[in-house]
Amino acid sequence: MKNLEKSTYEWFVEPHDSHTNKVIAERLATLNMLTDPACQELKDKKGNDHTVFIVPGYPFINSLNHSKSNLNLRFKVFGRKNKNNPIEEPIFESRKRINLKPKRKEGGKS
Questions:
Q1: Fewer Cβ atoms within 10 A, N terminus or C terminus of the chain?
Q2: What is the reported pTM?
Q3: What are the two backbone dihedrals, phi and then psi, of residue 19, each rounded to the nearest 5 degrees?
Q4: Each residue's pLDDT tens digit in the chain (110 positions)?
């Protein structure tokens, strides 16, 4: 019987400016998670290249999201299942918000 390779999900962050790049590198260095080289060039499903940091998991991304407005961070999140797959934006990153409130009719009662 074949040994099935355990699937793992990897998380990546693509900084959009030098300030965000510096903040992410400093946070990863504090956690001793800064790889050599610090950034990697990976392709998405469309074949586009992205320069990304490998990050330790979603809690790291969540902390970046919480600091986004205070520290003026600009970045995009990617993930992939297994090392051989291209990176992709997780669904929660690319969905548009939907207004669930019903529209009120103008000019009177409904």
A1: N
A2: 0.74
A3: -65, -50
A4: 445 556 688 999 999 999 999 999 999 999 988 877 888 999 999 999 999 999 999 899 999 999 999 999 999 999 999 888 999 998 765 455 555 566 666 665 55
Q: Do 53 and 38 meet the contact criterion of CB atoms below 8 Å apart?
A: yes
Q: Please compute, for residue 69, the number of CA atoms within 13 A of its CA located in the half-sphere on the CB side.
A: 1
- Domain spans in the chain, listed from the N-terminal domain onward: 14-94
> Can you read off the two tokens belonging to residue 96?
């548009």
What is the DSSP secondary-structure string of 31-95? TT---SSSEEEEEBTTS-EEEEEEES-HHHHHHHHHHTTTTT--EEEEEEESTTSPBB--HHHHP
